Structures are given as structure tokens and as C-alpha cells.
Amino acid sequence: MAGQGAGAFWAAAAVTLFAGFVKGAVGFAMPMIMIGAFSSFLPPELALAGLILPTLVTNLSQSLRQGLAPALATTRKFWRFLAAMCAFIIVSAQFVRDLPQPAMLLLLGVPITAYAALNLSGRSLTLHLRHRRGAEWGLGVLGGLYGGVSGVWGPPLLVYLLSTGVPKLETVRALGVAFLLGAITLLGAHLQTGLANGQSLPFSAALVIPAQIGMSLGYALQDRLDQTRFRWWTQIVLVAMGLNLIRRALM
């Protein structure tokens, strides 16, 4: 693992197991948990490369959990967000070594935390129907810009899904489809930048196993959550993700 030692690998595996569990339960947060923890004991480029394959494989599982036909229907429904996200992951990935990441993380973390905290306080934020197309394009661009440089592109989509009242199963499936397409795009982009290489990809592949184990455990919890409890837990995780973004920016 690029000379990091066995201790670093097992720590990464434990983090990935936990991240998989959270993802299985609420449908997101795996890259955020992984990159946030990995950055404390791995070089930044290895930390980002490590999450690529676990993210890809677990999102394939998540997007196809109800079958291929629902996954394709969800892809058609949210195609604007997905197209903008993939395009801008490719664009921003080219600047992963140049962009001021702390500023970008802060600009994403503050509004996400504020949005989720307001919803938890009982102040529901919704998007009017006439604004949905613009919101999909805009949030897709935003997700792609952050995704290419940090490996995290889910929060903007989750904000859209929660604010428009999408049901639990479709929310999780839409996140899975978006994350899968984003992971494929991210892998392709960083094969070109050299970040995904012969040293980092074996490490990333090894983390697929704990990721899948965690996902299976998380699915069992997700199936027990009704719509209200699911929405509450997603807001809690979203607040935690936003605060973690702010912490990383300030560090």
C-alpha cells in the first residue's frame, strides 16, 4: 500500500466497514466518511484513490437493488443532474492538484449544514415545481465540481431529493445511480491524471470487501426505517457530513 504499512491498511479497512454500514442504512456518506478519516493517516492522493473502487462497487449494488428497470427509470428521471455532474467531475478532476480545496470544502460544508439543521428544526425547505429543471442542472454542476477534487458529489443531489419529497426507496436508488455514474467517471478521470495507478488501485480493490460487508449490515437497518425515520436520519448524517467538510476546510 505505497509503503504505508499494515496498520494503516487495517485502519482503512475498519473505516470502510463503518462507512459501508452507514451507506447501506441511509444510501450515502461513504466517500465523506472515508475521505475524512483517511486524510488523517494517509497521503491525500492515496486517500482519494482508495475510495474509488469501493464506491463504484457498492453503488452498483445500491442502484440495482430493486432491479434494472427501476434503475433505468430513475436514470431517465434525473438525467439533467446526472449529465451535469459527470461532465463537471471530468472538468474538475483535471485540477485536483491545483484548486484551493479548503475554500471549496468550506463553501460546500456551510450551506449543507445550514440546510439540514433548518430541516431538523422543523423549517421545511422545498423547491417549487417550476424551479426543478434549473435546480437539477445547477446542483449537478456543483456536485461535479466538488466530486472531481474531493471524491464527494452526493450532498447537492441529496438536498434536491429531500427538498422535493422523493420517497425513501427512490431516494436511495437515485443516490446509487448518481454515485455509480460519478464513480465510473471519477475512475476514468483519475486513470488519466495518474492518481489511480498500479500502487493505489490494489489498495482500493482490497477495500471493496469491508465495504460490501458494511453495506449488507446497513441494508438490514434501512429496511426497518419508515419514511419519517429515514428522513430524520438522513438529515442527521447530512449535518455530520457538513460539519466534517467545515472541519477539513479549517484544518
From TrEMBL:
<comment type="similarity">
    <text>Belongs to the 4-toluene sulfonate uptake permease (TSUP) (TC 2.A.102) family.</text>
</comment>
<keyword id="KW-1003">Cell membrane</keyword>
<keyword id="KW-1133">Transmembrane helix</keyword>
<keyword id="KW-0813">Transport</keyword>
<dbReference type="InterPro" id="IPR002781">
    <property type="entry name" value="TM_pro_TauE-like"/>
</dbReference>
<feature type="transmembrane region" description="Helical">
    <location>
        <begin position="232"/>
        <end position="250"/>
    </location>
</feature>
<feature type="transmembrane region" description="Helical">
    <location>
        <begin position="78"/>
        <end position="96"/>
    </location>
</feature>
<feature type="transmembrane region" description="Helical">
    <location>
        <begin position="174"/>
        <end position="191"/>
    </location>
</feature>
<feature type="transmembrane region" description="Helical">
    <location>
        <begin position="34"/>
        <end position="57"/>
    </location>
</feature>
<dbReference type="InterPro" id="IPR052017">
    <property type="entry name" value="TSUP"/>
</dbReference>
<dbReference type="GO" id="GO:0005886">
    <property type="term" value="C:plasma membrane"/>
</dbReference>
<feature type="transmembrane region" description="Helical">
    <location>
        <begin position="134"/>
        <end position="154"/>
    </location>
</feature>
<feature type="transmembrane region" description="Helical">
    <location>
        <begin position="102"/>
        <end position="122"/>
    </location>
</feature>
<keyword id="KW-0472">Membrane</keyword>
<dbReference type="Pfam" id="PF01925">
    <property type="entry name" value="TauE"/>
</dbReference>
<keyword id="KW-0812">Transmembrane</keyword>
<feature type="transmembrane region" description="Helical">
    <location>
        <begin position="203"/>
        <end position="220"/>
    </location>
</feature>
<protein>
    <recommendedName>
        <fullName>Probable membrane transporter protein</fullName>
    </recommendedName>
</protein>
